[in-house]
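Annex B.
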Amino acid sequence: MDLTPLDVRYQEFPTALRGYQKEAVRAYLARVAEVMEGLIQENEALKARLGGLEEEVARLKEAEGELKRAVVAAERIARELKAQAEREAELIRKEALAAKEQVLREAAEELRRLRGEIERAKQEKALFLSQFQALLQGYLDSLERLAKE
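Cell division initiation protein: predicted C-alpha coordinates.
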Protein backbone atom coordinates (compact mmCIF):
# COMPACT_ATOMS: atom_id res chain seq x y z
CA MET A 1 0.00 0.00 0.00
CA ASP A 2 1.35 3.44 -0.96
CA LEU A 3 1.58 6.07 1.70
CA THR A 4 1.45 9.73 0.72
CA PRO A 5 2.29 12.79 2.80
CA LEU A 6 -1.41 13.68 2.81
CA ASP A 7 -2.20 10.24 4.26
CA VAL A 8 0.31 10.86 7.04
CA ARG A 9 -0.80 14.46 7.61
CA TYR A 10 -4.50 13.61 8.01
CA GLN A 11 -4.19 10.21 9.64
CA GLU A 12 -6.66 9.82 12.46
CA PHE A 13 -5.95 7.60 15.41
CA PRO A 14 -8.56 6.23 17.75
CA THR A 15 -8.52 7.79 21.16
CA ALA A 16 -8.05 5.84 24.31
CA LEU A 17 -7.53 6.57 27.94
CA ARG A 18 -4.14 7.78 28.53
CA GLY A 19 -3.39 7.94 24.80
CA TYR A 20 -0.88 10.14 23.10
CA GLN A 21 -1.20 13.89 23.11
CA LYS A 22 -3.06 14.74 19.98
CA GLU A 23 -1.11 17.93 19.32
CA ALA A 24 2.27 16.18 19.68
CA VAL A 25 1.17 13.37 17.35
CA ARG A 26 -0.19 15.95 14.88
CA ALA A 27 3.07 17.94 14.99
CA TYR A 28 5.13 14.79 14.50
CA LEU A 29 2.95 13.59 11.66
CA ALA A 30 3.20 17.03 10.04
CA ARG A 31 7.02 16.82 10.24
CA VAL A 32 6.96 13.29 8.82
CA ALA A 33 4.65 14.46 6.02
CA GLU A 34 7.01 17.37 5.22
CA VAL A 35 10.00 15.05 5.15
CA MET A 36 8.07 12.65 2.95
CA GLU A 37 7.10 15.50 0.62
CA GLY A 38 10.75 16.53 0.40
CA LEU A 39 11.83 12.95 -0.25
CA ILE A 40 9.13 12.50 -2.89
CA GLN A 41 10.16 15.75 -4.61
CA GLU A 42 13.80 14.71 -4.44
CA ASN A 43 12.88 11.27 -5.77
CA GLU A 44 10.91 12.86 -8.64
CA ALA A 45 13.82 15.20 -9.39
CA LEU A 46 16.24 12.27 -9.36
CA LYS A 47 13.91 10.29 -11.64
CA ALA A 48 13.75 13.24 -14.03
CA ARG A 49 17.53 13.62 -13.89
CA LEU A 50 17.93 9.87 -14.42
CA GLY A 51 15.62 10.06 -17.43
CA GLY A 52 17.68 12.93 -18.83
CA LEU A 53 20.91 11.04 -18.19
CA GLU A 54 19.50 7.91 -19.81
CA GLU A 55 18.55 9.98 -22.85
CA GLU A 56 22.05 11.47 -22.88
CA VAL A 57 23.59 7.99 -22.62
CA ALA A 58 21.40 6.79 -25.50
CA ARG A 59 22.37 9.85 -27.56
CA LEU A 60 26.06 9.33 -26.74
CA LYS A 61 25.82 5.63 -27.62
CA GLU A 62 24.25 6.56 -30.93
CA ALA A 63 26.98 9.16 -31.52
CA GLU A 64 29.59 6.55 -30.56
CA GLY A 65 28.08 4.14 -33.08
CA GLU A 66 28.15 6.83 -35.76
CA LEU A 67 31.73 7.67 -34.84
CA LYS A 68 32.72 4.00 -35.04
CA ARG A 69 31.06 3.74 -38.44
CA ALA A 70 32.88 6.89 -39.55
CA VAL A 71 36.21 5.49 -38.34
CA VAL A 72 35.59 2.21 -40.13
CA ALA A 73 34.64 4.10 -43.29
CA ALA A 74 37.72 6.31 -42.97
CA GLU A 75 39.94 3.25 -42.54
CA ARG A 76 38.35 1.62 -45.60
CA ILE A 77 38.81 4.79 -47.63
CA ALA A 78 42.42 5.05 -46.45
CA ARG A 79 43.06 1.45 -47.54
CA GLU A 80 41.43 2.11 -50.90
CA LEU A 81 43.43 5.31 -51.39
CA LYS A 82 46.64 3.52 -50.47
CA ALA A 83 45.89 0.69 -52.89
CA GLN A 84 45.02 3.17 -55.62
CA ALA A 85 48.22 5.13 -54.95
CA GLU A 86 50.23 1.91 -55.13
CA ARG A 87 48.56 1.02 -58.45
CA GLU A 88 49.25 4.49 -59.79
CA ALA A 89 52.86 4.31 -58.61
CA GLU A 90 53.28 0.94 -60.31
CA LEU A 91 51.75 2.33 -63.50
CA ILE A 92 54.06 5.36 -63.39
CA ARG A 93 57.04 3.07 -62.77
CA LYS A 94 56.07 0.90 -65.75
CA GLU A 95 55.58 3.97 -67.93
CA ALA A 96 58.98 5.30 -66.84
CA LEU A 97 60.61 1.96 -67.65
CA ALA A 98 58.91 1.90 -71.04
CA ALA A 99 60.03 5.48 -71.70
CA LYS A 100 63.57 4.56 -70.65
CA GLU A 101 63.57 1.57 -72.97
CA GLN A 102 62.27 3.74 -75.80
CA VAL A 103 64.99 6.35 -75.17
CA LEU A 104 67.63 3.60 -75.06
CA ARG A 105 66.34 2.11 -78.33
CA GLU A 106 66.34 5.52 -79.97
CA ALA A 107 69.84 6.23 -78.64
CA ALA A 108 71.09 2.84 -79.91
CA GLU A 109 69.50 3.52 -83.32
CA GLU A 110 71.07 6.99 -83.43
CA LEU A 111 74.44 5.45 -82.46
CA ARG A 112 74.15 2.90 -85.30
CA ARG A 113 73.20 5.66 -87.72
CA LEU A 114 76.12 7.84 -86.61
CA ARG A 115 78.55 4.92 -86.85
CA GLY A 116 77.28 4.23 -90.36
CA GLU A 117 77.80 7.88 -91.27
CA ILE A 118 81.29 7.80 -89.77
CA GLU A 119 82.10 4.67 -91.77
CA ARG A 120 80.78 6.25 -94.99
CA ALA A 121 82.74 9.44 -94.22
CA LYS A 122 85.89 7.32 -93.73
CA GLN A 123 85.26 5.52 -97.01
CA GLU A 124 84.62 8.82 -98.80
CA LYS A 125 87.81 10.24 -97.24
CA ALA A 126 89.82 7.21 -98.37
CA LEU A 127 88.29 7.44 -101.86
CA PHE A 128 88.95 11.18 -101.97
CA LEU A 129 92.54 10.70 -100.80
CA SER A 130 93.19 7.95 -103.31
CA GLN A 131 91.62 10.01 -106.14
CA PHE A 132 93.48 13.12 -105.04
CA GLN A 133 96.70 11.18 -104.76
CA ALA A 134 96.09 9.74 -108.24
CA LEU A 135 95.40 13.24 -109.55
CA LEU A 136 98.54 14.59 -107.93
CA GLN A 137 100.51 11.60 -109.24
CA GLY A 138 99.12 12.35 -112.70
CA TYR A 139 100.28 15.98 -112.41
CA LEU A 140 103.69 14.84 -111.19
CA ASP A 141 103.99 12.42 -114.07
CA SER A 142 102.95 15.19 -116.47
CA LEU A 143 105.49 17.58 -114.90
CA GLU A 144 108.23 15.02 -115.19
CA ARG A 145 107.45 14.43 -118.83
CA LEU A 146 107.42 18.14 -119.46
CA ALA A 147 110.66 18.51 -117.60
CA LYS A 148 112.27 15.79 -119.77
CA GLU A 149 111.30 17.41 -122.97
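DSSP finds two helices and no strands in the chain. The radius of gyration is 58 Å. Further annotation is deferred to the next reporting cycle.
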